[in-house]
Amino acid sequence: MFSLTHGHLNLLSACPRKFQYLILEQLTTPISIDQQSALDWGQQFHLLIQQQELGLEPTLFSQEDNEFNQCMAALRKAAPELFSPVQDAPRTMELLRSSEHHRSLFFHGYLLTVVYDLLILYPHRAEIIDWKTTLHPREFPSLSKDWQTKLYLFVLAETQQILNPILTADHLRMTYWFVRPRHLSPSPDPHPQSVSIPYNRSLHEQTRRELTALCRQLTEWLNPSLPSMSYSTLPQVNVTSGLCSTCCFAIRCQRTAFSDTPVIPNLGETGSLNISDIPEVILDEGAIDR
Ligand code: SF4
User: Fold this and answer.
1) What gap in Å lies between CA 132 and CA 162, rounded to an integer?
2) Which residue's alpha carbon is at the smallest distance from atom 4 of ligand 1?
3) Is the minimum distance from the CB of 23 to ligand 1 under 6 angstroms?
4) What is the fold of 3-29+85-231?
5) Ligand 1 contacts CB of residue 248 (under 6 A)
6) Domain boundary assignment for the chain
7) Residue pLDDT, tens place only, 67-118
8) Atom 7 of ligand 1, residue of closest alpha carbon
9) Atom of ligand 1 at shortest distance to CA of 255?
10) Where are the alpha helices (DSSP H) in 225-271?
11) Which residue has a Cα nearest atom 5 of ligand 1?
């Protein structure tokens, strides 16, 4: 069964052809050293904060440990309620506190899959916490439209109906915490920042409609009995969207006329290609989102 994550849904919504390249054809794109460094730091941060949640001694990695400690201290100061001792009054109300919490929901032939960085359930409310180590924090309007927010809350509302029917969509909330190390941040003193997104039944039904439409559309595209719509021809996004101008598949899509990415030069008279003439591929920051 095809498993759909929020990353898949974001890709599908933005450009089905890009979904085809990255997910169905498993093509990979190069990333810069800075992006790899940010990705590595983000993965270490998630691992260390998970170890802390489990009460384990954090694994030390490198000279960046000190920076991790500084980030953790800043996060504790900004959100003391998330790190209070288990015997404190608010913590005693917790019914469930789980890091790297996986849930799946069968939906229109697909397995919708989420992994919550931290999920906390109380008797009459629930909160999803997501740690973000992207270079630039994002604002509420952008986050509320992101499929991570919509899918995470949708799956929690649906699965919670089975486990604890008292908790409805109106009792759910998702909070993003943006944590950035000083050496990767454009700001000299990056403080942790949070954005909380409430949920309700109306948003839940809106997400259900959008998900249903996307799943049905994907099924149609993947249907081998429709050769003209087989996955080798998932639609390209309209050129007026502006997405092709920063997409690393612009050449493959023959969208270079709309792209900021220069075209790889033709072979010269010698018939050989000078590697210094090959342009650097520009990637959007979404490639290192974690
Ligand atoms: S170049 Fe444009 S059409 Fe092609 S995958 Fe990228 S965004 Fe989609």
Assistant:
1) 29
2) 253
3) no
4) Lambda Exonuclease; Chain A (3.90.320)
5) no
6) 3-29+85-231
7) 788 888 888 899 988 888 778 877 888 989 999 999 999 999 999 999 999 9
8) 244
9) 1
10) none
11) 18
Question: Residue with structure tokens 């960085």?
Answer: 117
pLDDT tens-place string over residues 117-147 = 999 999 889 999 999 988 788 999 999 999 9
Q: Shortest CA distance to 183 belongs to which of 48, 35, 38?
A: 38
Output the six-digit token pair for 82.
Answer: 């998330």
Claim: this prediction has a pTM higher than 0.85? no
Distance between the two ends of the chain, CA-based, in angstroms?
A: 25
Cβ atoms 195, 140 nearer than 8 A: yes
Give the closest residue to 107 by CA, choosing from 205, 2, 10, 14: 2
From the CB of residue 233, how many other CB atoms can be counted at a distance below 10 Å? 13
243 within ligand 1 shell (Cβ under 6 A): yes
Ligand 1 atom showing the smallest separation from residue 18 Cα: 5
